[in-house]
Amino acid sequence: MMCSISKNHNGLWDVQFYFKDLQGRTIKKHKRNFKTKREAQAYIDSFTAAAANSLDMTFSELYTVYCADMSKRLRQSTMQTKDYIVQTKILPYFGKRKITDIKAADIRKWQAELIDSELTETYIKTINNQMSAVFNYAVRYYDLPYNPVTRAGSIGKGSAEEMKYWTEEEFDKFVVMLKDKPISYNAFAILFWTGLRLSEMLALTLSDFDPAAKTLSVNKSIFRSKGEDFITPPKTEKSIRVVTLPNFLAEQLKGYISTLYGIMPDDRLFPVTKHYMEKEMKRGIKISGVKPIRIHDLRHSHASLLISMGADPKLVADRLGHENIQTTLNTYSHLYPNQARSLADCLDKLKHSKECEKDEEDNKDNKEE
């Protein structure tokens, strides 16, 4: 393995080397900002040992190889989220332990600490799933006999018991408080009335808006890392879509764009960050007094609004950019019982109407007799 260690302009140490992955491809690895040259060398040594396809490695070493491989297959934003979870919730507990020494009983103890923490049920499940993914990788590519996380069992919940969302009235009460900042006012309008993901909305450019057709083309996403913005493909293939706008929103967007002096086709309509939007969300909630929700809950708010209007689940799925209709049904199943009740009421009305018609015919026959 060819490798080099050098000091960077910050006075810290960088390493660079090449290795072959499990498919025999040569991969370049570059790791920066080690505090000492010894730490840099230790990193190379541990990575070399792990890359040798040996079970005699620590969980931290396994995770290093896992990241090097999976970063070529997963979105950068996905890897950043995964890395944050592993670095903060898993490595402090298992990082220095040999993977062959980690048993289901050890996982159960770790899971118990997560359950006793103040983390949400959904986040606990996400952490457990990330741990399981790394062990699945070892089972598949390093012949680890079994996944101890699978044996330990799952924890947490896949979805929150209660989904928070705003009604149209609540949103109107909130958004009017942001009229002093046109970017905020219009950005939140897009989120509520289209159901776009925040990353999709922030990536919108002038060329994505068709004022004649009154549509927005969703074809990219924005991802911010270490103070720099990256434009990436949307979350899934189905996320690439064209979203129709109600007339009032199309006119509102036209008015907003007319104030953006010198904007070019590839310029972003809302050149702000996720952090900015979160601060504005908190500001609007505080001033308006509406119940607190997350920005992502505006997407749920849009879905609930569509469902309350009787929208077909397939249309809701297409508008939200869900990979399949089952995702929509699973996510919003708690909202559909109301629609089922409405359907039953319609059947009642139909039955009542038929009975009334029959009664009228019987009365008519009796009079004729």
Characteristic key phrases:
single chain, 369 residues, mainly alpha, DNA polymerase, domain 1, hpI Integrase, Chain A, 3-stranded antiparallel beta sheet, 15 helices, globular
Description:
This protein has 369 residues and is mainly alpha-helical. The protein folds into two domains: 3-152, Orthogonal Bundle (DNA polymerase, domain 1); 168-332, hpI Integrase, Chain A, CATH 1.10.443. It is built from 15 helices and eight strands. It has a three-stranded antiparallel beta sheet, covered by helices on one side. It has a three-stranded antiparallel beta sheet with strand order 4-5-8, with no helix packed on it. A hairpin with a 5-residue loop joins β2 and β3 (26-34). α1 (37-51) packs across α2 (59-70), α8 (182-194) runs antiparallel to α10 and α8 (182-194) packs across α12. The protein is globular, with a radius of gyration of 27 Å. The termini are far apart. The relative contact order is 0.08. The mean pLDDT is 84.
